[in-house]
Amino acid sequence: MKKVLVLMSTYNGQMYLKEQLVSIYAQKGVDCTLLVRDDGSSDCTKQILAEEEKNGNLRWYEGRNVGPARSFWDLLLNAPKCEWYAFSDQDDVWHEDKLKAALEQFGNCVDRPALYFGQTQLVDENLCPMDSVKIHPLLTYGEALMYQFVGGCTMVFNDKLRNELLKYTPRYMRMHDVWIYDVAMALGAWVCFDDKPYILYRQHSRNAVGQVNSSLFRWRERIGRLRKNERIRSSIARELWNGYAELMVEEHKELTFKVINYKKCFNKVSLICGHELDCANHFVSIFGRLSILFNLF
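That's the Glycosyltransferase, group 2 family protein sequence above. Prediction below.
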């Protein structure tokens, strides 16, 4: 039976935490253990974790409040070695075959870094289904640089990918899952997307990161980033270059260099008119090219 270490970050999660823990304990077909980092909770979350640890269900430790991205990264850095790893939010509910289904996708892919992620089923606070955002990624490196769509709560990856991730900690990391996906794509890892959801992705007022099925909401968020001059894509590309330039697939290395220097006339024209940054979501493709045109990429 394959061993999976589930990594969970908590922060003031007392309302839904126990329900999520039960769904993790109920995973079938895998040898599942759980490591939790509490990100400075002030409610009863730490008491719940202490009780669960006392009952032998998990291990946990406490850290200062650094936000979800750095909290999950700290977990990744401090986790004991395992064959497979998975991330978990504190407020979702997993199907009992979530991890088993993910591992079945890998097949015999054990000799190279490998990453799985999947579709989510949006639910409200009471687990009633909501319209979900359906994604159909191209799974290209150019799309990864352009479009941040991967959900860390669905991720499962092997120790070989973790070893690559441990080689470099970026200064700029908007979210841990986006960074991990981008590194995997840059290095030419085996990457799989599962369009069948195995997770009830709860939407509520306390979500650290939610997924609202609203085009208006998503466009407002993009425009807000432009107003702040937050050049997310080129910042990520620069970090990828700093950490992995010598390990990248050659064509990915060339594209990364071009993105870092996208303000130069030749690179700008090439990125806007070419197909290297094409996305399954055409609106994102258009918006990204506009960001390049106005030096906001």
